[in-house]
From TrEMBL:
Gene3D superfamilies: lambda repressor-like DNA-binding domains. GO terms for molecular function: DNA binding. Residues 12-68 form the HTH cro/C1-type domain. It comes from the Bacteria. This is HTH cro/C1-type domain-containing protein. SUPFAM superfamilies: lambda repressor-like DNA-binding domains. It comes from Desulfuribacillus stibiiarsenatis. It holds the Pfam family HTH_3. InterPro entries: Cro/C1-type_HTH, Lambda_DNA-bd_dom_sf.
Length: 145
């Protein structure tokens, strides 16, 4: 269960903040990694290497090095075990705060669209606008059948 670069960056950012680091620089200096590297990882433009991940894992709370390696795609599981399931749970919680402004109907629609990764990936780019746009498309589709 590995995350794409953007999702992994958001995951690392969330872990950093939850671990009490207000800035990328704070975590980078504490972990002994380049602040620029951490910035690029969180921005989703650079893949993190296992050595940097190991250094950072010592300072991130509630996550193990193995979980980070799984999220980064270095460890694969054929069947989801507890680590893969925790990574999935964390992945889903990355965006949970962004969806607080949508209605129950829109959340049901979003849940349905999660079954179609291409739609869901587009939704995450700009949730507020894209969920409403897809909701209108869905209503038009339902009314035409």
């Amino acid at each position: 269960m590995n995350l794409d670069l953007k999702d992994f960056g958001a995951y690392i950012k969330k872990l950093r903040v939850l671990s009490g680091f207000k800035s990328q620089r704070q975590l980078a200096l504490e972990a002994g990694v380049s602040p620029a590297t951490l910035s690029r990882v969180e921005a989703g433009v650079q893949h993190i290497n296992p050595i940097t991940l190991k250094k950072m894992s010592r300072h991130l709370k509630n996550v193990t090095y193995q979980e980070l390696m799984t999220a980064a795609g270095y460890i694969e599981y054929d069947t989801p075990g507890p680590i893969a399931l925790k990574v999935k749970e964390n992945q889903e919680s990355i965006y949970s705060g962004e969806y607080q402004f949508i209605t129950e109907q829109e959340m049901a629609l979003l849940t349905e669209f999660k079954k179609y990764p291409a739609f869901y990936r587009d939704i995450k780019i700009n949730p507020k606008v894209n969920i409403r746009r897809l909701s209108k498309i869905w209503e038009a589709f339902k009314n035409s059948t």
